[in-house]
Amino acid sequence: QVxxxxxxxxxxxxxxxxxxxCVASRSIFSINAVRWYRQAPxxxxxxxxxxxxxxxxxxxxxxxxxxTMSRDNAKNTVYLQMNSLKPEDTAVYYCNAVLLERLQFRDxxxxxxxxxxxx
Length: 119
Known about the structure:
The protein is mainly β. It has no helices and 11 strands. The strands form 2 sheets. Strands 2, 4, 5, 6, 9, 10 and 11 form a 7-stranded mixed beta sheet that branches. A hairpin with a 4-residue loop joins strand 7 (67-72) and strand 8 (77-82). The mean pLDDT is 95.
C-alpha cells in the first residue's frame, strides 16, 4: 500500500506558475508508476503526466512544453511544475500511484489539490 499527500495548489493568474508536490509513504523506487490527473467541475478525470520505469515521463498534449514532472527520491516526492498556466488548467489535481500487489496492479490516490487560474 501507499499513502499520497498532495500540496502546492492555489490561485494564480494566467501566465503564472505553480509547483505541486506529492509525498508518498514509501520509496518512489517501489512504485510502478506515478501519475498526475486533473478533474475540472463537471468533467472526467484526465491524465496530465506520468512517470514510470526510471524517470521516463509522458505528458498530455494540452500541457506539453508547459508542465514538467520530476521526482526527489530522497524525499519520496514527485513534483509537477506548471508554467504558463491557462484558465483551462483550473481543476483539482490528483496524484496517483500504481503498485503491483499480489500479481495485480492497484491504483492509489491522494486527496487532491485545487488549482485555480484566473484570466
